[in-house]
TrEMBL record:
GO molecular function, one term: transmembrane transporter activity
Subcellular localization: Cell membrane
Family in the record: Belongs to the binding-protein-dependent transport system permease family.
Keywords: Cell membrane, Membrane, Transmembrane, Transmembrane helix, Transport
GO biological process: amino acid transport
Name used for this protein in its record: Amino acid ABC transporter permease
Regions that span the bilayer: 20-43, 55-78, 98-116, 154-179, 199-223
Main location per the UniProt record: membrane
Length: 236
């Protein structure tokens, strides 16, 4: 078997057209997951009655099951639920009109939220309570102490893990092809099938994923250097 090296570049250019969808499926759930993660982390840290056990089950379930199952359950289950509610309440709405990518974003947002909550919770708990007490002693209220003391340090401490989850979800976006989403992996499969050059197409896709991963790592390294001041203690 001889590798068609020039075709790797041809495939690279063709597969790269799917980059916007890949970034959407990667960044969208991370932003949604961040909001979910903050809420879940706050509930678990403050031990809110009734809600905390629900949050614990949520985190355990989504961390303990594959993301591909989350996509399939949401993709197959949400339209049934929406159509059932629409029929019952007379909304006249058909879930089939909702783009499939929306279900992917919802599913992966729940997945990301479970992982984000653990990262955020561990970051917040890593900040010494003495610093918060010191902030109160100089007249700061709870909001000010969280904004100026706790959150900056928690973010700096959590940055490596946030980088890892960013890279992880970049790779996880490849499973969206199972519901006909033409992201990088989906585009690679189509290019490979159309030209019967599977190895070359997958090499091209791997190079794109690798370049994106190095870019994320580089940006994270720059942020870490900027935020080293917070790893040495809070700033007032």
């Amino acid at each position: 078997m001889i590798i068609d090296v020039p075709f790797i570049w041809t495939a690279f250019v063709e597969i790269l057209k799917a980059l916007p969808l890949t970034l959407l499926i990667t960044i969208g759930p991370l932003l949604g997951g961040l909001l979910i993660g903050i809420a879940v982390a706050a509930v678990r840290i403050n031990s809110v009655k009734i809600i905390t056990p629900i949050a614990n089950v949520y985190v355990s379930f989504f961390r303990g099951t594959p993301a591909i199952l989350h996509i399939m359950v949401i993709y197959l289950g949400f339209p049934l639920l929406i159509n059932k509610l629409s029929s019952y309440y007379g909304w006249g709405f058909n879930a089939n009109s909702i783009p499939i990518v929306v279900f992917v974003l919802i599913a992966l947002s729940f997945t990301a939220g479970a992982y984000m909550s653990e990262i955020i919770r561990s970051g917040l708990l890593a900040v010494e309570k003495g610093q918060i007490e010191a902030a109160y002693s100089i007249g700061m209220n709870r909001f000010q102490s969280m904004k100026r003391i706790v959150f900056p340090q928690a973010f700096a401490l959590s940055l490596p893990n946030l980088c890892n989850i960013f890279i992880g979800f970049l790779h996880t976006s490849s499973i969206a092809f199972i519901v006909s989403q033409k992201e990088l992996n989906g585009a690679a499969n189509i290019v490979a099938s159309n030209n019967l050059k599977f190895l070359e197409a997958y090499i091209a896709a791997a190079l794109i994923y690798w370049m994106l991963t190095m870019l994320i790592e580089g940006i994270t390294a720059l942020l870490e250097r900027k935020l080293t001041v917070y790893n040495r203690g809070g700033v007032v």
